[in-house]
Amino acid sequence: MSTDLLSNSTTFGIGGVAKEYRWNWENQQLRTVYESLGNGSPLLLLPAFSTVSTREEMSGLAKLLAPYFQVVAVDWPGFGESSRLSVNYKPALYQHFLENFVTSVFDTPIAVVAAGHSAAYVLQLAQKNPSVFSRIALVAPTWRGPLPTMGVDRQVAGMVRDIVRSPIFGQILYKLNTVPSFLSFMYRRHVYVDAAKLTPSFIDHKWHNTQQSGARFAPAAFVTGNLDAVHNQAEFLALVQDLSVPVMVVIGESSPGKSRADMDALAALSGVQKAVLPGSLGMHEEYPEAVAEAIAPFLGIATVTK
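and the corresponding structure tokens:
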């Protein structure tokens, strides 16, 4: 495992210094891109898993928090500018990556802001090794992929994943599910609240991210539930119970019903701090000012200068 500066300019970054973290998984070397901005104690920002996932979605939060922390935003393996190899993307890969990345890059306990599906992976690592995180802020946390949330049987969802991974029909199916009109529809449905923000240039930028070589493999695993780190709400809640690290949950008031129920149940646990703000599953990107202001006291700063 090694870390090097990224010499090429980045398209989907946060405006900081980009580096590569190379690590091995099942006899293959994977390249992960992360970016640092600001100075001070480290604060890790983990984007949500999605078809359009990149560290850039954390850029609003990063810029607001960089005056107080050394903010580090990461592209998950298989997403953004990280390697998009045709490996078997599964929870064990991300559990392995997160533990190795955190323990290799940081030498002190760090605060972390995790969006969406990142939540369960952070909580699992905190249970396994409580000393790696000092505080955990979960923004619109989820644990169940889109197809299982819609009620699709996991065996059927697994078949869908295999189809999307196939060389010809899978590429066609992926292209159809990433055309700008469909991306815009999905954003309006459960990611953004303000449709006026979904400009043609915004959607085109997101579409460009989906067209990178190998882009379909990790999203196919996420959408079909094959990146779900837990399998039911009880397992999700158990990750927080008896956890020694302080936890805060930020809930988007317009989140889809099933996801909102999971967030409310998590926030209702003893000792968990919570905030309910405007937004849905993409609230960390759509409303970074409100999220930063809500988590600031939890992170140890009184307020955020805008």
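(Above: one complete record from the training split.) The longest helix spans residues 91-105.
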